[in-house]
């Protein structure tokens, strides 16, 4: 069996995150320094890209995307102004979750996931560039297994298995991401005991340049740049995703029903910025999308290569792991002391005297209603009932 095929089987069957230390990748676009990459970007891009800026002192809640402001910055300007976090700086900056087609051609040239056993990626990958403290609030991805390649700098990944009792929310709503309310960027010292109770389920790594992280399906993760960081990720599409697509259509319909006819302020609060332009569908259009998803699931057809997971026993997985000739490291649960120290250090950022960064146009009861109606187990129950009635109608 080829090395890439063995690695693919590991990726699709791992039950815990994997780190591939110093993985031998030769992607042409990243030859040279980060400055070289940024210089090429500026030369080929007609306009400066829009960076997200987020106040370091905004610590009352997770640093949701809706609270960030946009600012055009040339890449070299970003490196000059945010390359090292200075004491007088008030914000972090990031240009992240950018698909390949949004990046100049020379800056993605040679990126290929064949080494991991997935040659059919179709350039469906994303780039993430950010300064120190740039972060993504804790969430899990609805679809796929995540392959993350750290190109420059270092990122901290705090991960929890799917069954961890985090407080899921769909406010803010982003299609294919489920956030939680826990604030790992700046934990409230008064709530530290609640977070410390998660210590038996906390996994962590500092991903260094040249390392690769495999995030299994539905694992929670909080990600923060420890220095100026550039990474690339690819979500491996799975056959199980076809079933989950129905869940996401139901959530989308529920959320959009709440924002129809509401103020822009409420829409900007409830929806992640990348969802704001995607709320124009009528109920009948949403239903048509749902019906197509049902048909695809029933027929087992999708338009692209989908992969199976969990087809190896744990014993076969362990044997396969021993045949890999480079370092593949399954992450272990953090020690309780390490987890508490991480929380304690991040809690130093918490400012009890900070004013709320945004007035809420939704009452807390309304937020609870949205998140309750969209909770994964509620959506799963709706879907089960739908298929029970569908099959009952078909058989009658």
Automatic annotation (TrEMBL):
JmjC domain segment(s): 92-251
Cellular component per GO, a single term: cytoplasm
Predominant location: cytoplasm
Compartments reported by the entry: Cytoplasm
Pfam family, one: Cupin_8
Keyword entries, A-Z: Cytoplasm
Functional summary from the UniProt entry: May play a role in cellular stress response.
PANTHER family to which the protein is assigned, alphabetical: HSPB1-ASSOCIATED PROTEIN 1 (PTHR12461:SF43), HYPOXIA-INDUCIBLE FACTOR 1 ALPHA INHIBITOR-RELATED (PTHR12461)
Protein name stated in the entry: HSPB1-associated protein 1
Gene responsible for this protein: HSPBAP1
């Amino acid at each position: 069996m080829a090395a890439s095929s063995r690695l693919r089987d590991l990726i699709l069957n791992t039950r815990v995150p994997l780190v591939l230390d110093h993985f031998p990748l030769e992607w042409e676009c990243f030859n040279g320094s980060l400055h070289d990459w940024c210089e090429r970007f500026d030369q080929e891009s007609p306009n400066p890209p829009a960076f997200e800026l987020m106040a370091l002192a905004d610590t009352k809640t997770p640093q949701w995307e809706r609270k960030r402001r946009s600012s055009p910055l040339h890449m070299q300007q970003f490196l000059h102004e945010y390359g090292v976090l200075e004491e007088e700086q008030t914000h972090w900056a990031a240009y992240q979750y950018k698909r390949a087609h949004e990046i100049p051609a020379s800056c993605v040239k040679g990126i290929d996931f064949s080494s991991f056993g997935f040659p059919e990626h179709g350039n469906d990958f994303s780039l993430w560039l950010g300064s120190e403290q740039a972060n993504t609030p804790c969430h899990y991805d609805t679809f796929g297994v995540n392959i993350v390649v750290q190109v420059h700098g270092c990122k901290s990944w705090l991960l929890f298995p799917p069954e961890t009792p985090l407080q899921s929310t769909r406010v803010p709503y982003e299609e294919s991401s489920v956030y939680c309310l826990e604030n790992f960027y700046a934990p409230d010292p008064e709530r530290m005991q609640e977070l410390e109770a998660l210590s038996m389920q906390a996994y962590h790594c500092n991903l260094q340049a040249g390392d690769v992280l495999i995030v299994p399906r539905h694992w929670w993760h909080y990600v923060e740049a420890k220095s100026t960081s550039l990474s690339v990720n690819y979500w491996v599409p799975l056959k199980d995703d076809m079933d989950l697509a129905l869940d996401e259509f139901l959530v989308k319909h529920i959320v959009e029903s709440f924002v129809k006819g509401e103020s822009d302020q409420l829409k900007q609060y409830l929806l992640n910025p990348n969802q704001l332009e995607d709320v124009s569908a009528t109920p009948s259009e949403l239903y048509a999308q749902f019906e197509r998803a049902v048909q695809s699931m029933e027929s087992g057809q999708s338009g692209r290569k989908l992969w199976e997971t969990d087809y190896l026993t744990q014993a076969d997985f362990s044997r396969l792991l021993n045949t890999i000739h480079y370092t593949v490291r399954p992450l272990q649960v953090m020690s309780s002391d390490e987890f508490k120290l991480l929380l304690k250090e991040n809690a130093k950022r918490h400012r009890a005297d900070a004013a709320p960064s945004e007035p809420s146009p939704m009452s807390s009861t309304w937020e609870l209603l949205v998140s309750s109606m969209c909770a994964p187990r509620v959506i799963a129950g709706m879907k089960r009932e739908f298929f029970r009635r569908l099959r009952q109608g078909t058989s009658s």
